[in-house]
UniProtKB/TrEMBL annotation:
Residues 81-114 are annotated as: Disordered. One of its GO terms (molecular function) is phosphatidate phosphatase activity. It comes from the Eukaryota. This is Phosphatidate phosphatase LPIN1. InterPro entries: HAD-like_sf (IPR036412), HAD_sf (IPR023214), LIPIN (IPR026058), Lipin_mid (IPR031703), LNS2 (IPR013209), LNS2/PITP (IPR031315). It comes from Callorhinchus milii. GO terms for biological process: cellular response to insulin stimulus; fatty acid catabolic process; positive regulation of transcription by RNA polymerase II; triglyceride biosynthetic process. GO terms for cellular component: mitochondrial outer membrane; nucleus.
């Protein structure tokens, strides 16, 4: 019996495996090993109802075990009683003293031969050990060398993944890889309830050809992208809806103005679980926080690549705060189309009104382009150079306190 890995084989089955490993440095194919197991390995017998049959079978098994020499290459020495069992019947007629000498000498000889067989077979079995195999790990993260070998260009890069099988032919999956600079400013946008008017109907009505988009959002996003900002679409939809969601973003058209291009990040789960989490449980922040955190870590040493964000629920606001989006540039919209800025919730606006003052909220990043508002948001005439409001005493409040 030969032990390979964690399994035991008889010599008829193990010999081809050892020969393949020693001669070709490769293990036998799985189908060949299965055929050897079916043809060469003895089949296990079932239990018998009668005790006399069970006793005879157990005796035969013990007799057969005594004739086998176990070659275990886990550095375990064979026991003396197992080695001597094959020579007890031959030495019964000898005198007791001679029999003891013969037993000790034969056991020592077989012990040395077993060790030699084990050491020689251990070298062959190292080729079959799991550590010697080249194992591959599934991952969605490319190394810097792999990304460099792709020779990507700035902006979107179209890629195609193809898999060829014997029965299904060639399957292709198209995608886009975006190459951005480390100092680019990113604006995050939700889809359901933010671009569409509601969450539930936002999944259904666009597939039927009905326009269920907020008024003025395409024009606003287009102006923001013209000022040098990159858009990132993040939704808790399932990854199985990627084609439909991407087609909807390309389909949105507001008097010739379309949404800016950007990467689409979806949840890697089934359609029903993602729909239940976003529409029923209304807890999409679990996926969004993890996803946006990974995106933020790509822009090291820029720790705050996210400049602004658009959502429609308090969960979106919580997710955006966790990844470092400034609260004064987090906007939420309700089904009526009312746009609310989180740090001043009493100020109700809309996408159309925000597009009129887009240069004040999202100022131009590059000075070489002309703009009505060339200063940055940090040292603008309103935020930095404006005069502080004077302190005015309210006589009515003082009178009530007195």
């Amino acid at each position: 019996v030969v032990k390979i890995g964690t399994k035991y084989y008889n010599w008829s089955t193990a010999a081809p495996m050892l020969l393949a490993a020693q001669a070709f440095q490769k293990p036998l194919p799985k189908a060949t090993v299965e055929n050897l197991l079916k043809e060469k390995m003895p089949k296990k017998g079932g239990r018998w109802w009668f005790s006399w049959r069970g006793r005879n079978s157990s005796v035969k098994v013990e007799e057969s075990k005594s004739e086998w020499l176990v070659l275990d290459c886990t550095l375990q020495e064979p026991k003396h009683d197992q080695i001597r069992s094959g020579h007890v019947s031959d030495d019964l007629s000898a005198p007791p003293g001679d029999r003891l000498k013969d037993e000790s000498s034969s056991s020592d000889d077989e012990l040395r031969s077993a060790k030699q067989h084990c050491s020689s077979s251990q070298q062959d079995l190292t080729l079959l050990s799991p550590a010697s195999y080249i194992s591959y790990k599934k991952t969605l993260r490319l190394t810097s060398e792999e990304l460099k070998s792709l020779q990507l260009k700035d902006g979107p890069n179209d890629v195609v993944f193809s898999v060829t099988t014997q029965y299904q032919g060639t399957c292709r999956c198209e995608g886009t890889i975006y190459l951005w600079n480390w100092n680019d400013r990113i604006v995050i946008s939700d889809i359901d309830g933010t671009i569409t008017r509601s969450d539930a109907l936002g999944h259904i009505l666009p597939t039927l050809g009905k326009d269920w988009t907020h008024q003025g959002i395409a024009k606003l996003y287009h102006k923001v992208s013209q000022n040098g900002y990159k858009f990132l679409y993040c939704s808790a939809r399932a990854i199985g809806m990627a084609d439909m969601t991407r087609g909807y973003l390309h389909w949105v058209n507001e008097k010739g103005t379309v949404l800016p291009k950007g990467p689409l990040l979806l949840c890697p789960s089934s359609v029903f679980s993602a729909l239940h989490r976003e529409v029923i449980e209304k807890k999409p922040e679990k996926f969004k926080i993890q996803c946006l955190t990974d995106i933020r870590n790509l822009f090291f040493p820029n720790k705050e690549p996210f400049y602004g964000a658009f959502g429609n629920r308090p969960n979106d606001v919580y997710s955006y705060k966790q990844v470092g989006v400034p609260i004064n540039r987090i906007f939420t919209v309700n089904p009526k189309g009312e746009l609310i800025q989180e740090h001043a919730k009493t100020n109700v606006s809309s996408y159309v009104r925000l597009s009129e003052i887009v240069d004040h909220v999202f100022p131009l990043l590059k000075r070489e382009h002309s703009s009505d508002f060339p200063c940055s948001d940090t040292y603008s005439q309103f935020t930095f150079w404006r005069e502080q409001l004077p302190m005015v005493e309210n006589q009515d409040i003082q009178a009530s306190q007195n």
